[in-house]
Specification:
The protein has 305 residues and is an alpha+beta fold. The chain is 45% helix and 12% strand. It binds glutamine.
């Protein structure tokens, strides 16, 4: 941890002063109210040591980082059958793109683009009695943190403005790959995206992807070793949409971003690190978040390659 701590402090100070060419997401009106100068980092190691700097204890909207959690729960329910509904190929397209769905007969390229996450939410609706409450319970159990919650304002704000997601869900339904009511699927999807967490909480909740022996407080395993390996593989190849190659190239860790400006990255067997800086680059990924992680893995030689 000592080595990580020093590097994090040093890279944080360095990146804080870099001119941020990004922009805060405002297509979800409620997200535009965030203070763009927020900048926080938190690392949790496999032996549960934690270290954070800056705004690492402020809650923010995790948005698409939640797609790891919805995928995990759906994978638990369906195992390999899940891949009949959603593929595991990088899309090379923006996160909210409709483009490939027609040629692919309504089967999304992967679970981390919106189309894929919407299908995953549909799968979960078919398994959960009280989807929003049950999913929240699942997140609280993994993180051993009962303070986790949705941000209703953000969810409702996206419900009023999420026209592309409405289009995606209806289009996929026309191919038969959405089984439940479109409005219910979208309502659940918007709430999962509105989950709020701090960097510290994010670096803790994903420990199950670094530690093969991870057991929850209730004594449950989250994923098998093989499943956890596969979730990491999809994060590496698809976690940053049409910038997934760039993230692997510059940072070299499995990761996932969200339009709230959060990024989570996993070093299997070592640590989980979370970064938050709300201004996004043109691909919808946190500008400073990516820069921080690039410098961090370079200085600590902790890329997986
Ligand atoms: N809720 C957002 C949306 O559907 C999530 C997108 C993201 O974080 N990349 O547009």
């Amino acid at each position: 941890m000592k080595n990580y701590k020093e590097v994090i402090e040093c890279v944080y100070a360095d990146v804080k002063n870099v001119t941020d060419t990004g922009k805060v997401a405002d297509y979800i009106p409620e997200l535009a109210f965030v203070d763009p100068t927020n900048f926080g980092i938190s690392i949790t190691t496999i032996d549960k040591q934690n270290f954070g700097v800056g705004d690492f204890e402020k809650k923010f909207s995790i948005q698409s980082v939640s797609k790891i959690l919805t995928l995990t729960l759906a994978y638990k329910f369906e195992d390999a059958k899940l891949w009949d509904r959603v593929d595991v190929e990088p899309s090379g397209n923006p996160f909210n793109s409709l483009l490939q769905l027609e040629a692919d007969f309504g089967k999304p390229r992967n679970p981390f683009i919106n189309a894929g996450a919407i299908v995953i939410c549909d799968v979960l609706l078919s398994h959960l009695k009280n989807p929003k409450a049950d999913f929240l319970d699942f997140c609280r159990e993994i993180s051993n943190n009962t303070s986790l919650n949705y941000n209703v304002k953000v969810a409702e704000s996206e419900k009023k403005s999420g026209f592309r997601n409405v289009a995606l869900c209806n289009f996929i339904k026309s191919f038969g790959n959405i089984k439940n009511d479109v409005e219910e699927v979208l309502d659940f999807y918007f709430y999962t995206c509105s989950l709020e967490m701090t960097c510290k909480e994010l670096s803790e909740i994903f420990l199950f992807l670094t530690d093969d022996n991870f057991i929850t407080i209730k004594g449950n395993r989250i994923l098998t070793m093989s499943q956890a390996k596969r979730v990491n593989a999809i994060m590496l190849t698809c976690g940053f949409y049409d910038e997934s190659g760039e993230f692997a190239f510059r940072v070299g860790l499995p990761g996932k971003s969200g339009v709230g400006g959060g990024i989570v990255a996993i070093h299997p067997d070592q640590f989980c690190i979370a970064v938050w800086s709300p201004k996004l680059n043109k691909k919808g990924n946190s500008f400073k978040g990516m820069l921080f992680l690039e410098k961090f893995t370079t200085k600590t030689a902790s890329s997986i390659f």
